Structures are given as C-alpha cells and as structure tokens.
Request: fold
Amino acid sequence: MDEEKRELNLRTCMRCRGLFVYSGIGHAICPRCREAEAREFDWVKNYIYANPGATMIEVEEATGVPIHQITEYLKAGRLEIPNNSPIFIKCEKCGQDIRSGRFCSECAHKMSAALKKELEFDEFQVGEKPTRPAIGKMRFLGKELK
Reply:
C-alpha cells in the first residue's frame, strides 16, 4: 500500500479525511472539499460586504462557516475587513488590530529588514575573481616545487 500510495501521491484530505490523488499544489484538500470551501468563502465574502457592521458571530451564524475558517481567510489575505467594520484580527507579533493578513505593516517592515540584514554577506564570505588567466597549476603554500 505504501509503495502504491507514493506512486499515485495519495493524500488524506485535511477536511473530510478521505483519500484523494494530490496534485502537488496547495493544501491537501480533496476536490469535493475544495469546491465546498470555495462556496463557503463566497458566502462569507458576500455577507461581510453586504453587512459591514456584522460581528464574527453573526457572520458564522448567517453563513454556517466556523469562526476559525473565517479567520483563516483573513490571515491568508483572501478577505479584507471593510473600514467601518467592528471586526478585526490581531497582528501575530504585536497584537495591533489589522484588517487582513498576519502582521501589521510596522511589524512586517521590521521583520523584513531583520531578515534582509541576516541574509547580507560579510566581507570575508565574498571571494574575488582571479586577475590572471586560469592556465596555471594549483599551488599549495609551504610546498616547494622540484
């Protein structure tokens, strides 16, 4: 079974726990659940934009989509909360209210700058190209030629 599973790239659906052939792209969700998720996303999106003052609980009750799934849509950037809405999610780093995504703009900028600094090369890590043509032999220090 394991060898057959590897060849077909069978996976267990994260939602319904059924087996399906995974395409290798995106989350491991079967086609049936992917369609259901697309419908649920449309319900949530349409409800939020038709009712911008709705709370998360109201959205959940009206659409039947659990709050954790609505939050995932917001964190993934698939939904953005309207400006005049009382619904907000929190920045995962500092806790500031945000309309979508995982981090506020200040934290995202700070993390990006820190990552960029970590990825910079030190002077000793960058070598120079030789100026002479590459026709010579390899030489070793401390070894005399005879």
User: Anything to note?
Assistant: Helices lie at 2-8, 31-50, 56-63, 67-75, 105-119.
